[in-house]
Amino acid sequence: MAVVKLFAAWPSAYSYRVIWALKLKGIPLYEYIEEDLSNKSPLLLQYNPIHKKIPVLLHDGKVLTRSQNLRTNLPTMAVVTLFGSWFSPYAYRVIWALKLKGIPYEYILEDLPNKSPLLLQYNPIHKKVPVLVHDGKPICESSVILQYIDEIWPQNPLLPADPYDRAVALFWIKFADDKCPLISKLYRTDGEEQQAVAKECFEMLEVIEGHALIGGKKFFGEDEINMVDIAFCSVAYWLGVIEDFTGLKIFEPHKFPRLNSWIQNFKSVPVIKDNLPDTDKMPALLKRRREMLLASKSKFELVKLLIYRTNSNWFLLDQYFDWVSVRSNSNIIDFITWRI
Predict the structure, then answer these.
(1) Which of these CATH numbers, 1.20.1050.10, 3.20.20.100, 3.40.50.300, 1.10.600.10, describes 163-282?
(2) 95-126 burial: b if 16+ Cβ within 10 Å, else e
(3) Residue pLDDT, tens place only, 28-46
(4) What is the overall mean pLDDT for the chain?
(5) Can the peptide bond before residue 160 be classed as cis, meaning omega within 30 degrees of 0?
(6) Which residues, in sequence order, are bridge partners of residue 325?
(7) Closest CA to 201 of 170, 234, 229, 247
(8) For the chain, which has fewer Cβ within 10 Å, the N-terminal or C-terminal residue?
């Protein structure tokens, strides 16, 4: 995004013409330079040597003067739309990145059991949120979207400029992408399978504690939040919610002091704290999803058991359609795929 600077003075009606126009155009980040009109700055006199007045707009090194000209020649911002879900940590990754960058956007909340035609149009491969649409062009997968945002809007960078530091950050983002889905598996499993997932989650936390958060860092990006912090948002927030719901206890502060300190720092960042999902709605959602998933899993195991115990002529008991007779392996596969 081009650099925008505005030279103005607080009592000037002409200055406010431009301020309001910038807001209406959705240009959130510009440098505001307050002029003392009794002692005008050398920069103002340089940029407006004829009238020596405010307002003066500097856009990508080009000077515009007189408020009428400024209002009609303001840079425009491409439309940004985000398709997300209120509970998805991957959608919140993108929300926080846009907020940190100061990018205005339209937010479309998807009902995931009943996905919109637009979502399916923009993400026909995975049919998932989040999807960012920038100037009509869709970008899918949260990590890809975060890197796109950082390249298109370079203010408040989310990745280090140094090539080595950037490579290390991308390594941990990949680690988060690979391991953090374990957290959602905690409420989608039970019994021995759930215990195995809990063990893997604990091992993931050990790796983060022992290798990623060393040297007394406040954030993964030292003193400022960056893309790695955002990538590990499931650990900072969703893990605790799912632990409370399942009754499991994986994260214990005394076992992970560095990680505990990072979680507190992360959740205290205003952009994060002010943009979190509603915790009151979560237990009901998790309960509903868990019951549906476990019911489907149990039904699938019952069908498998009945198949294994017969030879040439199978009778499958379906709770909705009574007895269903199936006479070939291909038909059984079709039936299972359709019903489960």
Answers:
(1) 1.20.1050.10
(2) bbbbbbbebebeeeebeeeebeeebeebbeee
(3) 667 888 998 888 888 888 8
(4) 83
(5) no
(6) 315
(7) 234
(8) C
- Which CATH number describes the domain made up of 80-152? 3.40.30.10
pLDDT at 166: 95
Same fold, 80-152 and 163-282: no
Give the whole-angstrom CA distance, residue 132 versus residue 107.
Answer: 10
Give the CATH class of 4-63. Answer: alpha beta
For the record, the structure tokens of 290 come out as: 């868990």
Rounded CA-CA distance 140/143 in Å is: 9
Question: pTM of the prediction?
Answer: 0.67
- Decide if 151 contacts 113 (C-beta within 8 A): no
**Peptide bond preceding 138: is omega within 30 degrees of 0, i.e. cis?**
no
Q: Which two tokens stand for residue 302?
A: 């019952």
Q: Give 169-185 as a DSSP string.
A: HHHHHHHHHHHTHHHHH
pLDDT at 207: 97
For the chain, give every domain's residue range: 4-63, 80-152, 163-282
Rounded to whole angstroms, the Cα distance separating 101 from 111 reads 27
Q: For the chain (length 340 residues), average pLDDT per consecutive 10? A: 78 86 76 88 84 84 67 60 93 96 92 92 96 94 97 93 95 97 91 95 96 90 92 95 92 96 96 87 72 63 49 43 41 40
DSSP codes joined into one string, 189-207: --HHHHHHHHHHHHHHHHH
Q: What's the pLDDT at 316?
A: 45
